[in-house]
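Q: C-alpha cells for this one, please.
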Amino acid sequence: MKCNVCKNKKIKLLNYFGKIPRSFDFKKKKIIKKYKFLLSKCNRCSIIQLEKNGSDQSFVPKLKWINNNEPDQHLGELISYLKKKLKEKKKILLISNFDKKIFESLKNFKNIKLLDNKKYLKILKKNPNQFLIQNSIIKKNFNKKIYNLGKFDIIVSCRVLEHTYNLNLFIKNLEFFLKPDGMFIFEIPDSQKSLNQGDVAMLWEEHPIYFTKKNFIKAFQILGYKILSCKRYLYPQEDALVFRIKQDDKNKMNKIKNLSKDVGLGELFVKKCNNKKRKLISFLRRETNKRKKIGIFGAGHRSIVYFHANKLRPYISYIFDDNQNKKNLFFPGSNIRIKPSEIIMKNKLDICFLSLSINKEKKVMRNLSKFNKNIKFYSISPDSKYAF
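A: Here is the predicted structure, written as C-alpha cells:
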C-alpha cells in the first residue's frame, strides 16, 4: 500500500478493526457485505488513513434518501473573505455541490463560478456524494480544448478533500484551473480531538484520510505548498478547519517548515479504542447477565462503526431510529430490524446508548423517559456529558 497523499511506500499498519458494513446498506434482507477496516499511518507525512476493500463504485449509496449533511454554520467568515476578494475582481471557482452555501451567498458576483458536475465532471447523478466527485476529478484529463473555464485566482472546496483516494492527483488535476500565483481554500473536518479521545465511531468508510492541523501542513509542504492561514472552528465532537494555501516559492523559507508531525497520535488512538472496548464489553456482559435489555438509539454511520468495531451483537437487543425511511430495515451488517422509538414502550428497555447529535441528546432522553422512567442513558460521543 502507498500513502494516499505523498505516495510514500513506508506505511505503518496501526490496527485492523474487523469487517464493517457500509453505513448506507439499509436492506430488507440481512445478508450484507462487509469490508475490512485497516487503519494505517504514513511515516513521511504522518497522515492517518483508512484502507478498505471494494470496487470503485462500492461506496455510492443506491438509496435516494441518503445524503451527507455536512456542518456549515462556520462558513460565514469564509464567505465574507471571498466577498472581499470578489470586490477586488478576483476570479473564484467552487468545485462541488458541497460549496452551495457559499455560492448562494455570492452568486450575484459575476466572477464566481460553481463547477457544473454534469457538464465538466460527467456526473449524471443529482447531488452526487463526495466519492463520485473526487473519483471524477482524479480520473479527468483536463485540457484547454475541452475545458474552457479559464484560470482562477482562488479555488474553494468544502468537505471533499478527506474523501479522496488519491490526494496527490486530485490536487494536480485541480491545478489546471489555478493561476500560477493562485490559492486553494480547503474546508475539512478536524480529526485531532476524536483521535485523542479514542473515538472509534469517527471512522467512516467514506473517509480514507483523517486530517489534523499538523499533518495537513506537513503533507502539503511535501506536495510543494505553503500555508497562508489556518482557522479552527469548534463544534461538539468534531471541529472544522479552513486552510488557505498556495504553491511554495522555493527561494523563500516557509515559517512553518519545521512544524512537528503528529508523532504517536495514531498509536494513541488505537490504544484508547482498545481500552474503551474492554471497558464497554465488561459492562455489557455484566448487565446482560442481569437480564438487562440494551438498545441503541440512532442508526447512523457512527453507531454502525461503534457496533461492529466493538463487536456488540451479543449484547444489543434493539436498534431505534425515528427516520421513517429506516423503519423495519435491517441495521447494516446485522439481523436486528430498526424500530421507531415508540417501540420502547412495549419492550421495557433498561439501557439505551445514544448515537445522535450531542445537542439533541437531552431532548431525546426526555422523550424516551416518558415511556420508561428507569432507562439509563449513555452516549457513544466522548464530548457528551452522558458519555459512557
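A few notes: The CA atoms of residues 21 and 281 lie 21 Å apart. The two ends are 35 Å apart (CA to CA).
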